[in-house]
Prior knowledge:
CATH class of the domain at 152-226: Mainly Beta
Strand order of the largest sheet: 7-13-9-10
Mean pLDDT: 82
Radius of gyration: 32 Å
Distance between the termini: 73 Å
Number of helices: 3
Order of helices and strands: HEEEEEEHEHEEEEEE
Structural class: alpha+beta
Low-confidence stretches: 1-24
Amino acid sequence: MKLNYFKKILCLTFFAAATWTAQGQQTTGDIAQQAVSTAASSNTAVKLIDNKGTIKYLQVSNGMTSLTNSTNNKTTTTWQLGGSLTSNTYIDVNGNAFALDGLELINSATTAASTDTTDQSDHGTGTGWTLLIRDEATGKIQKMKATDLIQSGRADYTALAGDETNGNAVINAVGIPLNLSKVWVYRNGAKLSAADFALTTDTVTVTEVSNSWELYTGDVFEVQWIK
């Protein structure tokens, strides 16, 4: 009776493990067997015998870990999430929600964004927080600094005599976006309208408007932008 019960347990264990394996990234072909598990080993194959007497091996990989505990003359092998991905992994949610509940909300008043994050860093090696982003071309999840999400810049210029003669001033503004809604230009502290200037690569050209305002030597221009 005990033998049959033990065989049933082995069959159920093998079925569950086989189901987990089927849900992995590799769904066809053969996966090489890992080393046979020993006490306190990690990510190794577990040797079992099914109800037909066939020797089989259970193992985990690609983001899962197996831990074996052999205390009090009882061996327990546990499979759990956590570990190194050994291949690119894609999960097709097929229109269903893929979500994480229970995430902690950051208090921006007491927790600052990271200033020391590095590429492929492990937890515990930096401070603050970063933003998770998704590369739409590959689907890859990456991180970025908060300061890189919105970039800003500014440029100052004082009009010369030639500018007054020409009625326009060309202001060097390296990195400026070619989008009028993201650029602000001020003349002597007064904001100019979008009709008063034009944008080209790294350049803002301010042109006086007849019957509205004239450009004079010494006019101070300030250009601000975000992108």
